[in-house]
Specification:
heterodimer; A: 374 residues; four-stranded mixed sheet; 15 helices; elongated; B: 224 residues; 7 helices
Chain lengths: 374, 224
């Protein structure tokens, strides 16, 4: 049996290796393209920083960390020239005296802004930067009020201005101020803040992994084509046994490549590799392989098998939330998670329903496979 | 010995074979002729256990098809009309692949000799580059790997050149006469049938050679 499988592999290793590596290559390409596209869709702005104070630096950091902005640092003349050339959407100047204005609670004209007649994102960027500056002003004002309260109660020495600002930053970083969890009386917490252990990289990978699996399993049709079927009647090893051997072989080789994929994603995208994720990956691989195996046993024409395989892969990807997040839908109908093994992979769980159903069908196939002819 | 009694095959309302009986002895080559759709391939598939008859009894070497189908299959070599080999393999790989699947274990040299015996010498060559005649020979060689006593061939020489036809005919003749194999095969080529076969059965109404399948077949001398 091993000799036969290896002979097949030796003859077709080029195409098999291509199909095995395709999901990794395509995922890397897609993620790279999405990265470039995201970078290109950022709004290009120039930041002219004329003050070197702590508050000005903080504001600059916050602007730079805003995901949708691509910030260039330059002097005002160069920035205005580029704005005229429409290479920039807008220009913002943090003028000297910014910290002094904030500390003295002067809210107006903190930042100078320039735009052109093609500054399509100007208003949105102004809102963003203003809100960041106002955050500093509000923090500063709150500190003054607190400080004043201590002064009023004669305990001026307990807190100074810097400490209050520091504590405010600490709170902002450590607490999700705009999010809260609630629960009904005597009930478990209703909102679930846990995030999926596998992120979008795996979502992209599952699409290509499923499609390539369907293509890899076309041997089921090729080796059991109508002209070959009579051959299998006159052999010591039945097609059923041979096919199960091939299923095991492909599962072993595909899972090995999946593990390799997990480590590549760890190196390139910082995706975690844990026992739980590997178990989930194995369950996903088993599910997809048996699905492809059973689907191939139903069809006689390769073309129809490929079309059905691609359609099923796309359907499972969409309802699995790999491309479009389905959080809202899943809160409403939690059972939707059971419909796709992709969702199980993305949440690091085992698609038990799928495995039970496919195992039953596989047993039926094995039983029926020996009864079809004479 | 192959014994067929009162064989009938029906597909829903259509009767393809009706009350067919025949016998074959060791070392005999029997031809099966008839018009298209007369039931030649059905007959071969019934004898090859690929189909079950609606009625009737078949025995091979005293083994009933109904009761001992697995044992019967070990004694049958079936050569389908379509070429059933792996196109992406070489001749050697095909032979060794099916040898591994076979009930009878053979050495690589024995497999090679089987090919040489029927003038198939392209041992290391890929099947894709073989001629139609060579592919037919390989198709036949694979069916002989488990050393069957009954060889059933469904139009084994269709679409091949005269030289290959003659070589296959000669080989079949030697198989029957020297090794005692029973060989039954279908063909539309009456010259080939008369050259190779000892007896001929004709199937189908208004058949050119016989009205209905006759129990003992036509001695081939009558057709020559």
């Amino acid at each position: 049996m091993r000799w036969m499988v290896l002979t097949r592999f030796r003859n077709e290793w080029k195409s098999i290796v291509c199909w095995l590596l395709l999901p990794i290559v395509m995922t890397l390409l897609v993620m790279k393209s999405v990265g470039v596209w995201q970078e290109e869709t950022k709004v290009p702005i120039a930041l002219v920083v004329q003050e070197e104070t702590q508050l000005a630096k903080q504001l600059v950091d916050e602007i730079v960390n805003t995901e949708l902005l691509h910030v260039h640092f330059m002097v005002l003349d160069e920035a205005l020239h580029k704005l005229e050339q429409h290479e920039l959407d807008s220009v913002f100047v943090i003028r000297e005296g910014y910290e002094e204005s904030v500390l003295s609670n002067r809210r107006n004209q903190l930042i100078e802004a320039y735009s052109s007649n093609q500054s399509f994102a100007y208003q949105a960027v102004v809102e963003t930067i203003t809100s960041l500056a106002q955050q500093d002003v509000a923090r500063s004002k709150a500190s003054f009020v607190i400080k004043q309260l201590f002064v009023d109660y004669g305990r001026e020495s307990e807190w100074d201005y810097g400490e209050i600002i520091g504590k405010s930053h600490e709170r902002q970083q450590n607490e999700a101020l705009l999010r809260t969890s609630f629960s009904y009386y005597d009930k478990e917490e209703t909102s679930n803040d846990s995030t999926a252990p596998l992120l979008q990289v795996w979502g992209v990978w599952t699409l290509f992994a499923m499609i390539t699996t369907f293509f890899l399993f076309d041997w089921m049709l090729k080796e059991n084509r109508p002209s070959m079927r009579p051959r299998w009647l006159f052999t010591a090893i039945s097609f059923r046994r041979y096919a199960l051997g091939m299923l095991l072989f492909y599962t072993a080789i595909l899972f090995s490549v999946d593990v390799l994929t997990a480590f590549i994603f760890l190196a390139l995208f910082d995706e975690a590799v844990t026992i739980r994720i590997l178990l989930s990956l194995y369950a996903f691989r088993l599910t997809v392989n048996v699905l492809a195996f059973l689907l191939a046993s139903v069809y006689r024409q390769l073309f129809m098998y490929y079309v059905s395989g691609i359609a099923i892969a796309l359907f499972l990807i969409v309802i699995g939330g790999a491309i479009l997040p389905l959080d809202g839908l899943m809160r409403k109908w939690p059972w939707i998670e059971l419909l796709s093994p992709v969702q199980s992979l993305l949440t690091g769980s085992i698609p038990i329903g799928w495995l039970i159903a496919l195992s039953t069908l596989l047993v039926l196939w094995m039983w029926k496979g020996g009864k079809t002819i004479a | 010995m192959l014994e067929v009694e009162g064989l009938q095959k029906r597909y829903k309302q259509k009767t393809v074979l009706e009350n067919c009986s025949l016998q074959m002895k060791q070392g005999e080559i029997v031809g099966l002729v008839g018009e298209n759709g007369a039931g030649k391939s059905t007959m071969l598939q019934l004898l090859a256990t690929i189909m079950q008859p609606t009625k009737g009894e078949i025995r091979l070497d005293g083994l009933s098809y109904k009761e001992s189908v697995k044992e019967v299959r070990r004694k049958i070599g079936y050569v389908p009309q379509d070429i059933s080999i792996w196109e992406e393999f070489t001749v050697e790989q095909n032979m060794l692949f099916f040898e591994r699947l076979s009930w009878k274990k053979r050495t690589q040299e024995e497999c090679r000799q089987l090919c040489i015996d029927m003038q198939l010498t392209h041992w290391k060559e890929g099947v894709q580059s073989l001629s139609g005649g060579m592919k037919r020979k390989l198709n036949l060689a694979i069916s002989l790997l488990h050393d069957p006593i009954l060889l059933l061939l469904d139009e084994p020489t269709v679409g091949i050149d005269l030289k290959s036809k003659t070589e296959i005919g000669t080989y079949l003749h030697s198989l029957a006469k020297n090794k005692g194999k029973m060989i039954m095969y279908t063909s539309h080529d009456m010259d080939e049938i008369t050259n190779v076969c000892d007896r001929v059965y004709s199937i189908g109404k208004d058949s050119f050679y016989m009205d209905l399948l006759q129990e003992k077949g036509i001695p081939v001398e009558q057709l020559r």
